[in-house]
Amino acid sequence: MDIFTSTGGVLINGDGKIFLTRKIERNEWSLPKGGQEDGESLIDTAKREIEEETGFRNIELVSDEQIGHNYFEFVNPKTGKRSGKNVYFYLFRIINDERIDTPEMVKEGFEGRWMDFDEALDLISFDAIKVVVKNAQRLLRV
After folding, report:
1. What's the gap between Cα 125 and its chain centre?
2. Which of 23, 51, 107, 109 has the most C-beta neighbours closer than 10 Å?
């Protein structure tokens, strides 16, 4: 069975708010995340994916400690075979609020916005992602 690796993260601002992304087509609220490229570390992948899916280019890692890990199995639409995926999450913050619409946001149909943690937990579409956000909330004591 093929096992894939993805990473992403919780992005916070100076007001203690979290940025969630929404996959417009499916109306799914989640955290920015995506596949690891050859030669990338987990943290480098998380940073790149957050930048691509949120449009924020000035972000920094808060802690190199993982704040979440999910594993799930699925039928790979490219091969029709059962595959597994490990998804790792880290905590990041923005340095400033400069933001652009990236080609990835447009191509993949993402939008997003800042919100407090309670609103985020109400909107998030996946229970496993809610656990990651609660871990970040505990770490930040928000």
Report:
1. 13
2. 51
| CB contact at 8 A, 41 and 64 | no
CA–CA distance, 59 with 52 (Å, rounded to integer): 12
In this structure, the strands spanning 33-35 and 2-12 are: antiparallel
Residue type, 65: E
DSSP state of 125: S
| Residue whose structure tokens are 């993982």 | 66
Residue in this structure with the two tokens 């871990």, named with its chain if needed: 135
For the entire predicted model, the pTM comes to 0.92
- 8 Å CB contact between 90 and 43: yes
| Residue 107 CB partners (closer than 8 Å, separation 6+) | none
One-letter-per-residue 3-state SS of 9-69: EEEECCCCCEEEEEEHHHCEEECCEEECCCCCCHHHHHHHHHHHHHCECCEEEEEEEEEEE
Q: What is the pLDDT of residues 28-37, one digit of tens each?
A: 999 999 999 9
Q: Cα–Cα distances in Å, from 82 out to 3, 58, 74, 75, 111?
A: 9, 37, 6, 4, 30
